[in-house]
Specification:
By secondary structure, this protein is α+β, with helices and mostly antiparallel strands. It is 30% helix and 21% strand. α1 packs antiparallel against α5. The longest helix has 22 residues. It is found in: Endomembrane system; Membrane.
């Protein structure tokens, strides 16, 4: 019976760790980072996601014709590629969120940016470590400054850019891992009993 309890605790710990892990979102889904068919495509996609500190974006694009630029809000609105905070041109960029707040991305190809290849992501605050509530910002407050370079982590991707994806984000992979853990637990019950 002790083996059963050990197996139960181990399975539950595995399920919780998978469910609590960070998510990698593939920008643009299977077609990747490119000029969208619908001008609202990236905005609508970002509004449907819950981005948290520790999550990351995967940008897959043709490196010879496109790139990704992290910019401030002003450069985002004007598609100003000359004032980027950071530019990525490897064709397979992973950007990890290490702080909450807005992040502005545009295509490094100004023509593509003008065709709505741009994205705003708002990362939620980490409420688990808050000790007090901050006052609400006034409506006349200026927008937050761009992220300092020291607060961002850039990671090379281990994903093959030629590999297709049926999911527009990594959340389904997390759910599949959770389901596999539950299935393994139920299957192990047959061996214990």
């Amino acid at each position: 019976m002790a083996g059963f309890h050990y197996l139960l605790v181990l399975s539950l710990a595995l399920a919780v760790s998978i469910a609590a892990g960070a998510t990698q979102f593939k920008v643009g889904g299977p077609k990747g980072w490119s000029v969208p068919n619908d001008p609202k495509e990236y905005r609508q996609w970002a509004e449907k996601q819950r981005f948290q500190i520790g999550d990351s974006l995967l940008f897959v694009y043709q490196r010879d014709t496109d790139s990704v630029a992290l910019v401030d809000e002003s450069s985002y609105r004007s598609c100003d590629t000359s004032a980027s905070i950071r530019t990525f041109d490897d064709g397979n960029t992973v950007f990890k969120f290490t702080r909450s707040g807005p992040f502005y991305f545009i295509s490094g190809n100004k023509g593509n940016c003008l065709k709505n290849e741009s994205l705003v992501v708002v990362v939620m605050a980490d409420r688990s470590s808050r000790t007090s509530l901050a006052p609400s910002p006034s409506s006349s407050a200026s927008p937050p400054p761009p992220p300092p370079l020291g607060s961002m982590v850039f990671m090379p991707s281990t994903t093959n850019p030629n590999e297709g994806s049926n999911s527009s984000n990594g959340a389904s992979h997390k759910m599949m891992g959770l389901m596999a853990s539950i299935g393994a637990f139920i299957g192990s019950l047959f061996f214990v009993l």
